[in-house]
Amino acid sequence: MLRHATALLSEARAAAVKAISAAGYRERDIRWCLTVPAAWHEDGERALRRAAGDAGLPAGQERLLLCPEPEAAALYCHLWMTGGPAREPLGPGANGSRFVVVHCGGGTVGLAAYETSGDGSGRIALREIGEPAGGHGILVRPREGEELLDRALDGIVVQIRTYLAELGREDGAPLPETLLLVGGFAASPHLRARLRREFGADHRILVPPDPSRAVVEGAVHLAARPEIVIARRSRYTYGFEIALPWEEHRDPPARRIRSGEGEALCAGRFEIAIRRGDDVTAGAPFPYTVSPTQVEQTSVRVRMMRTRDPAPRYADEEGCEQIGELTVDVNGSTGRPLKERVLLLLLSFGPSGVRAEAIDPITGERSQLSTYHHPTR
């Protein structure tokens, strides 16, 4: 499977480079965007990145973006509805409009919800308001007839209802007023009629002129302007494993340690940086501070953690996993009081992964880590 993907990507890369080079651009000027199903998780994405690297595509997060198909389609629909041929706003006003992309294509259905967000300058961006979902099969062969088609449509209706119900519970705001149908199957009159019958009383059902092109055109726009998606919803709680002040009657005695200055600490605490369900603004760093626990300590190791639990206390609880590690040389501040040996931790989320940086303000020593563990998948 990986070999087949590598061959396809290599062929696509060669064709794209040839066409773009003919227009006067260099290969190093290209930012690539590969789309993945909404239901994909990191094992699939890591395999895709390996295949892309073997095919000659760049390895860095800034030049190779991975984008969920509904997100690419959402961008296409947003641009089409607000600036394309239709010039019809997604809601009463462009800013603050909420919509769900229903991507029907490739054998599965993907769902993602967004809200338009403006900054007063006329620039509109997208903010994710729910976790993407997907996975329902829609493959129906012509000879199987309308009965199986109806069964497939039943499954799609159930998936949309479930998604809207979960979105209402998690978000608490009014449900999106618009359902946007994209993907090859969105051209089906049976699908359109069924969804209008099931959801038309409460939602507008809209289909762009060429729904099968929504993902690829949206991906092109995203590669050109990755900042247009200003916030995504984190599927995980992210943080660091550190020692925090000991809390009597709450922390177990086995975790109790003492700093070099005699302070009681609890080892192995999960210091939360981003909680599951929080908005994650692309590129915005989340700052935290940590200190060595011993006066003569010459390096500090910081483990980056994640879990599906929204409120973990300890880094070794069930479901917690390490996704990276930073080691900072603090030899230049050895011997100083611990309160003066503060390290700055910066956690940020890019288009395709998580980045952490640790900085020693005294020496300027820096340690960086990039991981392809995506916060929203």
UniProtKB/TrEMBL annotation:
It comes from the Bacteria. SUPFAM superfamilies: Actin-like ATPase domain. InterPro entries: ATPase_NBD. This is Hsp70 family protein. It comes from Sphaerisporangium krabiense. The lineage of its organism: Bacteria, Bacillati, Actinomycetota, Actinomycetes, Streptosporangiales.
